[in-house]
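Sorry to interrupt, but I need a hand with the structure work. Please put the record directly below this note.
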Amino acid sequence: MINYLRRTIKAIDEKYCAEDKKFRGLHPLVEAIDTFFFTPDHKTTGTVHVRDFNDFKRVMITVILGLIPCAVFGIYNVGYQANLTGTVPGDWHGSILSFIDKILPFLHVFRSTNVLGCFVFGLCYYLPVYIVTMLVGLFWEVLFAAIYKHEVNEGFFVTGFIFPLICPATVPLWQVTLAITFGVVIGKEIFGGTGRNFLNPALVARAFLFFAYSGQITGDKVWIAADGVSKATPLAYARGGVEAIQNAGYSTFDAFFGFIPGAVGETSTFCCMLGMIFLIVVGVAPWRIVASTFAGGLGLAAILAHFSANPESAAAIGPMWHLVLGGFAFGAIFMATDPVSAAQSNLGQIIYGLLIGALIVVVRVYNPAYPEGAMLAILFGNCVAPLIDHFVVEANIRRRQKRLQAR
């Protein structure tokens, strides 16, 4: 059966999508389907320096596997937070649940706070955002692949998986369409596609949402999947210090494991850590970037907390709260480590991570209008990563020249 499927794909490609055929523009799409399900059968020819079993597709699939704990728990937490309010969803999400109740009456438990109920409740919000993200993003990927006559890269599968996780559950689908279009086209394709973009496309899309529709993306109500409920994220209370966070009903336990309002996949530092361990063990995530981002952010947070004269300020909350709130852990593990937009040299990765970690805390502490700093910090790090690598390489060259002159 598997061999028959592959022969069918190959036959369609050769008969209709070859270079001299009528539908040759669809060759990138057929090739993408083939390589998604099967190992590429192209063999390296000529002289090569390194042969490795780990191709780009395997790297992207590994990243997605590392994201699964965050996605699964995030979907559950969306339903859990909404069920805590005791309300039911309105708009089209409520229509989805009503339809499920009619065709499967025994599934009324989905309205309850048990694990299955919360997960399905959250899935009704997450799944439409994910589907729209993938359909729109892959449309642009295939279109540009056909225009430029290159392969459809698997890189978008990671972008399409991450983007819904860094958005509120209630983000409108038309905004998702505009944002992912901006992220793919402006953030990646105009630079030549995967491997040539210097910014993380998922973060570019999220930044578009923030700056274009800030009133609808940062308010109290957007983080809870229920109508008429106002509940800010713990990070918003951090501007009043640790006591303000605790008075709002949040503990470090809830924040670490993710039982708090926030973007779908960012709330659970514990799940982020599981993904971090997996990605570092398999050698996909550069440990230098992860370690230096944590060191830069948590180190600066500890210094600010030590010297803070006002306990009712964001500077006084300390490194633990910075770690478990917002997108600090998620950004450091899954987005700062992007193999395309991050620094490449060993020393450059350490500098790059320290810069991002410190900047996250600086934005959180000194910009009261924008409590979350991970997105802007990582985008800034992406912008300066080539410059960091340039100076690291130049410094290495100068050291080697001095050693040669000393002989």
